[in-house]
């Protein structure tokens, strides 16, 4: 079952259950505090919070999402993409737990001929919030799940709140058991690799106050209008239904992976685990970049553009680690476009524009890499010959300042060579440079120096990398 077909089945199912089908919102949110749409609920926040009256009591959609906080997992777990699609159904003060559970179970287990996804109930587990007896009882009575496959878990995994006074409530999650080959028995509570989370049902039930932390607050009472908010990972369903090992091997991602492998002269799945991870990273990151470019993000040194730049550079760097020195984006982006265009025709319609950005970004970064890598390699050799295990802060600073070599890359390369970087000294030098620059600017009082020759290199190195930690959190979403 192709990814696009699974998405269509989801929409058809919920349309039959009287849901209004809503198109995906952009990856770029209206909210400047939240860089990207990180979950299906994001575009519905005004309705869920009661700020805007919902135009329909029920809705369903396929929402494009970006989660940069999962970037370190990409390629290593089977289930984390920086880009993915979240299937969701919503009730705004309409149906609640019982129908949410009923619908989810029916769609997952109904035969394919009836529009379902035909999961074998024996492969499914669910979790409920430990105090949510109601949800526990509903799963027990509405489905054939034996009691031992309904696990009670704590607030950290099974409670949703924004960390602010307002709506909150328990969650119930559905997991697919990949079998004993993947890990220990015992359900989602015990093993992350064997039990793949496929669907999260959020029951927005309570109004909370005196919020001391995301999971420590007082309940004022039940909300007058309770909401349902669900999120099912399309790629996770796809990889299970397609009988492959992970989401990077599904029909929308695999063509890029295969092309990257062939450009690198590698046999995916046969040689080295490390190379396989890199190929999966390339496939994921190329797709995410394509989708971000299609939604109007362009590479830059701040905000959304910086995240895009980071993702593209990580793909380029991964290709280099796979042994490819030259440009690969012209080929890889075209492959990703072809894999995605059925679901997102805009990636084809707008391809000339977005591929121009991707190709230019790759050329610039390859030049930077060529200049910086030679210097860095030499520093690494010197450090090792001297018996040292640390690359000095001043070397890292020189690379940054003169060659526009990003610090995160220096850290990564040093780590691969078994060295650490004196980050404290580097940060100190950065601080001093900034102070100096400010003083200079004051002294010049508007005098103009022609720095155009430096602009390109400087532009590459100016931003201290804080993207993963600062720019995006999940705190207000699923
Ligand atoms: P996990 O615990 O596996 O990281 P999650 O609890 O962070 O998932 P939710 O925030 O509950 O995920 O999102 C709802 C659904 O979206 C998940 O059940 C999963 O199917 C899907 N999903 C979440 N993150 C990703 C991702 N990075 N890539 C692909 N699918 C994802
Ligand atoms: Mg997660
Ligand atoms: Mg989870
Ligand atoms: Mg979850």
UniProtKB/TrEMBL annotation:
GO terms for cellular component: cytosol. Keywords: Aminoacyl-tRNA synthetase, ATP-binding, Coiled coil, Cytoplasm, Ligase, Metal-binding, Nucleotide-binding, Protein biosynthesis, RNA-binding, tRNA-binding, Zinc. Its EC number is 6.1.1.7. The keyword Membrane does not apply. Residues 1-478 form the Alanyl-transfer RNA synthetases family profile domain. Transmembrane segments: none annotated. It is found in: Cytoplasm. It is an enzyme of class 6 (ligase). Its cofactor is Zn(2+). It catalyses: tRNA(Ala) + L-alanine + ATP = L-alanyl-tRNA(Ala) + AMP + diphosphate. Binds 1 zinc ion per subunit. GO terms for biological process: alanyl-tRNA aminoacylation. One of its GO terms (molecular function) is ATP binding. It comes from the Bacteria. Belongs to the class-II aminoacyl-tRNA synthetase family. Catalyzes the attachment of alanine to tRNA(Ala) in a two-step reaction: alanine is first activated by ATP to form Ala-AMP and then transferred to the acceptor end of tRNA(Ala). Also edits incorrectly charged Ser-tRNA(Ala) and Gly-tRNA(Ala) via its editing domain. Consists of three domains; the N-terminal catalytic domain, the editing domain and the C-terminal C-Ala domain. The editing domain removes incorrectly charged amino acids, while the C-Ala domain, along with tRNA(Ala), serves as a bridge to cooperatively bring together the editing and aminoacylation centers thus stimulating deacylation of misacylated tRNAs. This is Alanine--tRNA ligase. It comes from Microbacterium enclense.
């Amino acid at each position: 079952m192709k990814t696009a077909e699974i998405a269509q089945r989801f929409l058809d199912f919920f349309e039959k259950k009287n849901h209004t089908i809503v198109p995906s919102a952009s990856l770029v949110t209206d909210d400047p505090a939240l860089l990207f749409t990180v979950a299906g609920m994001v575009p519905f926040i005004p309705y869920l919070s009661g700020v805007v009256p919902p135009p329909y009591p029920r809705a369903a959609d396929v929402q494009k999402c970006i989660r940069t906080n999962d970037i370190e997992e990409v390629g290593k777990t089977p289930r984390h993409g920086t880009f993915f699609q979240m299937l969701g159904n919503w009730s705004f003060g309409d149906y609640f737990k019982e129908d949410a559970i009923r619908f989810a179970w029916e769609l997952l287990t109904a035969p394919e001929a009836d529009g379902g996804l035909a999961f074998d109930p024996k492969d499914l587990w669910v979790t409920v919030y430990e105090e949510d007896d109601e949800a526990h009882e509903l799963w027990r009575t509405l489905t054939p799940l034996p009691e031992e496959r309904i696990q009670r878990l704590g607030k950290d995994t099974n409670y949703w709140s924004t960390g602010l006074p307002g709506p909150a409530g328990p969650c119930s999650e559905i997991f697919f058991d990949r079998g004993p080959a993947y890990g220990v028995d015992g359900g989602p509570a015990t093993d992350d690799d064997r039990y793949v989370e496929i669907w999260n049902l959020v029951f927005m039930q309570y109004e909370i106050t005196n919020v001391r932390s995301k999971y420590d607050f007082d309940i004022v009472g039940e909300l007058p209008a309770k909401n349902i908010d669900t999120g099912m990972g399309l790629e996770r369903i796809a990889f299970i239904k397609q009988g492959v090992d992970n989401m990077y091997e599904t029909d929308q991602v695999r063509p890029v992976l295969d092309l990257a492998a062939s450009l690198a002269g590698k046999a995916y799945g046969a040689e080295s685990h490390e190379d396989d991870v890199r190929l999966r990273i390339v496939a994921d990151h190329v797709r995410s970049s394509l989708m971000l470019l299609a939604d109007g993000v362009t590479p830059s040194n701040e905000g959304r553009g910086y995240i895009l730049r980071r993702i593209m550079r990580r793909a380029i760097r991964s290709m280099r680690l796979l042994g490819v020195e030259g440009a690969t984006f012209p080929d890889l982006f075209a492959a990703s476009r072809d894999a995605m265009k059925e679901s997102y025709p805009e990636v084809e319609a707008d391809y000339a524009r977005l591929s121009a950005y991707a190709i230019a970004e790759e050329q610039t970064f390859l030049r930077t890499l060529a200049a910086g890598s030679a210097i860095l390699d030499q520093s690494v050799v010197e450090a090792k010959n001297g018996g040292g295990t640390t690359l000095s802060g001043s070397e890292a600073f020189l690379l940054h300042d003169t060659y526009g070599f990003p610090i995160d890359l220096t850290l990564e390369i040093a780590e691969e060579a078994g060295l650490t970087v004196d980050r404290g000294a580097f940060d100190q030098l950065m601080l001093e440079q900034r102070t100096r620059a400010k003083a200079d600017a004051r002294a010049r009082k508007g005098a103009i120096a022609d720095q155009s020759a430096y602009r390109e290199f400087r532009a590459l190195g100016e931003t201290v990398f804080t993207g993963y930690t600062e720019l995006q959190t999940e705190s207000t979403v699923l």
